[in-house]
Design brief:
Layout (H helix, E strand, L loop, with lengths): L1 H12 L5 H107 L1
């Protein structure tokens, strides 16, 4: 009989967690889920803030670039108005100089080819 009573006592204690333990585990699970959701929402808010800050930085850089481009265009227009005729003369001179060099290079290649042809002719005729 003592054996049967001990077995019953052991079975009742080892039957699983109590209601309080189950409630505590459920509460811990809910707290964990709530903390994860809060962390996700915080991360989304931080990402949105970073995106807004990046967009503002891009806009500031674009404005700065536009200002620099306008300044360079104005400076270039001022310079080209003063040097308009000189610049075209220099371009014409450099182009004509290149054409003259090309022609002399072609002549020297032709002159080099001619003597070798005449030597061949001399050998055949001899």
């Amino acid at each position: 009989m003592a054996l049967v009573g001990g077995t019953l006592a052991l079975a009742s204690c080892g039957g699983g967690p109590s209601a309080e333990e189950k409630a505590a585990a459920e509460q811990a699970k809910m707290d964990s889920i709530k903390a994860a959701e809060q962390a996700r929402m915080d991360a989304e808010a931080a990402a949105a803030a970073a995106a807004a800050e990046a967009a503002a930085a891009v806009e500031a850089v674009e404005e700065e670039v536009e200002e620099v481009v306008e300044k360079v265009v104005e400076e270039t227009k001022g310079r080209s108005g003063m040097k308009g005729s000189e610049g075209s003369q220099k371009t014409d001179e450099s182009t004509s100089g290149r054409k003259g060099m090309k022609g002399s290079e072609e002549k020297s290649e032709t002159e080099e080819a001619a003597p070798s042809n005449s030597r061949k002719g001399m050998k055949k005729g001899s």
